[in-house]
Amino acid sequence: MSELSVFRAPTIEAEIRVPGDKSMSHRAVLLSAISNGVCVVRGFLPSHDCQCTVNAMRNFGITIEQPEETTLIIHGQRGNLHPPSQAIDCGNSGTLMRLLCGLVATQPFESRLVGDGSLSSRPMRRVIEPLTQMGASIDALGANGAAPLVIRGARLRPIRYELPMASAQVKSAILFAALRASGKTTVVEPFPTRDHTERMMSYFLVQSQREKLGQGIAISLYGDQVPESRDFTVPGDISSAAFWLVAAAAQEDSDLLVRDIGLNKTRTGILSVLLRMGARVREVIADCDQREPRGEVRIQGGRLRGTIIAGDEVPNVVDEIPILAVAGALAHGKTVICDAKELRVKETDRLAAIATNLTAMGVEVVELDDGLEIYGGSPLLGARVKSYGDHRVAMAFAIAGMFARDQTVIQDTDCIATSYPGFPEQLQRFLAPDEKPPTLVINPAEALEKN
Hints:
By secondary structure, the protein is of the alpha/beta class. The chain contains 13 helices and 24 strands.
């Protein structure tokens, strides 16, 4: 079990790039695999989560070459997968498991999806219900409707499904299933969530329709469509950049430029929040050729102030809540996060984890049923905190450690590799050379075993 030790950092003045977007990497692999020919995916995120997606499609009979760590050559089979010889291991990836539910529900064979302990505790009924309505048979063998999942595919029928809560993963699962259903399937979301699936399906020449309904959106898709094989380049992940954006925003006189980053408007909520908090932010969209806008973000730090994060803003910053909570601790005044109950069923109960760790670092926090009240402005204290096996919690508190007095140690940081391999090295480059850099410390007992 590894630990990340962090010391107070100097002012940030840098230009950086971050690894490829995790959400787009998953979807690029899945769409390429069911396309009508060969696709080259560049900028692929070689994280544990995304590599699980590659391995899953190989187990379904899809040939995938990986000549470089971030380049894939995927031989699409027109949506016709082969029965797997073993259970499909989704690792820690809820995105993969939920999207695969929709994809394999259309196949004429049985599939079994499994995951690690964390994934096996996360709710799957929300995706099982609409797919069952479409005619799939899905058994959840875990407690409370969780994995392992046994899926018996069928010829699906179209449905109109109103999401009871905003969820890009459930929406995407239904859309993947709809590709091989007969007729028109419509998904209605109460308010917009990240739209990578619709955008990328459109890029792969899948026809769909969008209609605004009050605050929400209805997405309709006719079945019996095969994605056209096309090459795709994945931009940098704004959710990964968010950690460095907050680090720069909270430091007066800092200046950070992040190049080649995805700027999909359903993912840039982090920039809106930081603007409200007093950071100086400039985003420049340079390219929309692949339906996904990309460009650069420059952020200059200053004195942050507390804010409120609530309502329809939450789905578009849901992955950034841990680091925004750290921003709230570094800001002056009260920051309120609410309508975020979904965070209790992520890789861990993120609300409880954030509250516990901030408290350990000397921050006054009130834990709400669906959020947090954070009273910022007091100096952070170095502490020994837990990641709880959650990559975003681990990285958020590494950033908190950059502002704390004395040393901060984040325990169990192996999980960072699920989304951001190379994070510890980038963190080290931001620390002053005359101070002790962050180091990955192997548990002494493990070190003895390795020797």
